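Standup notes
- DV: blocked on the single-chain target, sequence here:
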Amino acid sequence: MGAIDSRTGTFIRSSMANEMLDAETEHQLALAWRDRQDEAALHRLITAYARLAVSMATRFRRYGLPFEDLVQQGNLGLMRAAEKFDPENGARFSTYARWWIKASMQDYVMRNLSVVRTATNAAQKKLFFNLRKVQAAAERAASGRSGTLSQRELAETLAHELEVPLAEAETMLARMAGPDLSLNAPQGDEAEGREWIDSLEDSTMPTEEAVLGRIEARRRLGLLTRALEALPDRERRIVLRRHLDDAPLTLTELGAEMGISKERVRQLEERALARMRDSVGRVAGGSGA
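- DV (later): unblocked, structure below
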């Protein structure tokens, strides 16, 4: 876990020596910050409870992350608590802040313990932070019965104790079964020079095909635009309202709007589309497409 640097050591000692606030003082400081944005009151409130961040950080040291970073995350959670706290809800700020400090550290651990996202929902988060405790108790119980605990039995125990779906428990056990491996690690004999990353299929379109596709799309759009602009006003309006509007009109609706029958709208639409096809075909044929 590494030694604590001198600056963090100084912060820890000073935080433990800070004043202890009674409920009334805490309430008044929280009101002063909420109602008047009194920064002196905020500073005093946060400073008084910096010890909570230090205390919580010691509980998270078992994950092997830098203690200094854990303390900093706790301080961020403490500041977030001060921003969100409502002094009129009847709860102590210390109780409210403890939740935010813990949540901030849990998020930090999950983001940094592995390059793979370890927990992605509430059930997995509960599993991640309680897995070792429940697993140790289950293994002690199994050894007392002179037996061993299978992965299936362990998953079932976790699901029951933590009240999460069995599938979530099995997924978390699989994720925690081994360390992260580099995709640049060799698959076998290093002399072969083949890495695991070479086995991954690239699902993206090759750059050349993507560029040609964009060029062709722009060309077709240009042909259609010119063909549309060459139509008589009434036919152009019908094509736009029937095919290019976000909410295209029906023949009946467009006929009512234009003061003509829906059958006449249909006739004009067919003629306009035929003209556009002819126009695009002539240009495309002339260009050798």
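- Follow-up: The chain has a mean pLDDT of 80.
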